[in-house]
Amino acid sequence: MRTNEKFKTSIGGQALIEGIMMRGPKKDAIVVRSKDGLKVEVSDRKFRSKKNPLTWPFIRGAINFFDSQVLGTKAIMRSADLSPDENAEPEKQSKFDAWLEKKLGSAAFQKAVIGIAVALGLLMSIGLFFLIPMLVSSFFDELIPNVFLLHLLEGGVRIVILIGYMYLASRMSEMKRVFAYHGAEHKTIRCYEAGLELTVENVRKQTRKHPRCGTSFLLVVVVLSILVFSAASSLLLELAPGLAAMKGSFLYKLIMILFKLLLLPLVVCVTYEINRFLGRHDNWFTRILMAPGLWLQNITTNEPDDSMIEVGIEALKAVLPETEGEDKW
What's the whole-model pTM score? Predict the structure, then answer.
């Protein structure tokens, strides 16, 4: 997809409940539309030292992915607080929640809730997009002796589940608005990268697809897992011939599933570096590689209305660097 961008920014965002979170080079901003108008919260970003091993290539991917899950969960919970449903009755705190908050304290209680939410989200994602396809493919171990074809089947199941999950989510009335805010986030960033004034009219004309979207990231993870799992499994069977002799047994299936789950952080780290490369370059080769992810954004983004675009503009303006070009990708 050719664009009219003048430069690539490092600013990125996430759709929230009736709002958008933007992450700039030095600041984070949450902007939510409530019944009282726009509510804006800006905070300074915290960075690890460049000497920290957690910032090194092929390590930072998994760390940044986990950090983004924590931050995203916090932002979603905060947006829910800032944009209460006028028709909803106030929820009563359960006895367990009240006891837990009393024992841990308010701050620790919030951290515990966020930790549980992140853990449940990761477990659901791993179970739905990885564990189930692994279980399905394991039943074909004896029928498909070729390791690559077996993992191609597994990857096909994974892609079907991913697309099906996103499609079903897009049909939910609540998610339609979230996906529209997702579109507003992309359009606003596209307008900024095109060097245009951040107005509703200019933003509205932009495409709602962006190569650095989390949707594209997930698709690359799925595709890359086929290659990594296939190569690593073949190598494992070569190094452990006794394991190959167990093929078809319950223990063999269990070992292979656990082995591939241990490889997931590697897949995430490599995917992160690939997405960084694709996000920095725009040529025929990168456009071909980005095409499937951009197509998938037809499902995960909707065209926003002007009020949503206003939220995107406010969120982006809140994180713009003081020095021009400081956010250049």
Answer: 0.86
